[in-house]
Amino acid sequence: MPSMITLSVTAVPDHLRGALTRWLLEVTPEPYVGTVSAKVRDELWTAVSACIEDGIAVLTYPAANEQGFDLRTAGHRRRNPVDFDGMTLVAFGAPPPDEGGKETVNPF
Q1: What is the pLDDT of residues 72-94, one digit of tens each?
Q2: Which of 1, 23, 83, 95 is deepest in the core (most CB within 10 A)?
């Protein structure tokens, strides 16, 4: 049964953006939305994660859990999904090093 998905991509190759528009609607420059089957969703995710390069991708889709959705991520990112007793929370990692080679530390 088809279900609605959202796919947000940042800094990905143009050919990937073009391929995504065959299946999904690009509502603004980064998020894509569409209604596809689980098989198409999985195939799209395989293609996205295979050619993400230096970019970032986050896929959300309906799931039979307490939150009502699940998510997948690919690429190097600061936000990482963490399972906390069956709930998906987002943990923030350290910021990337600045141009001077030192990491910027936020005390808060």
Answers
A1: 999 887 788 888 888 999 888 77
A2: 23
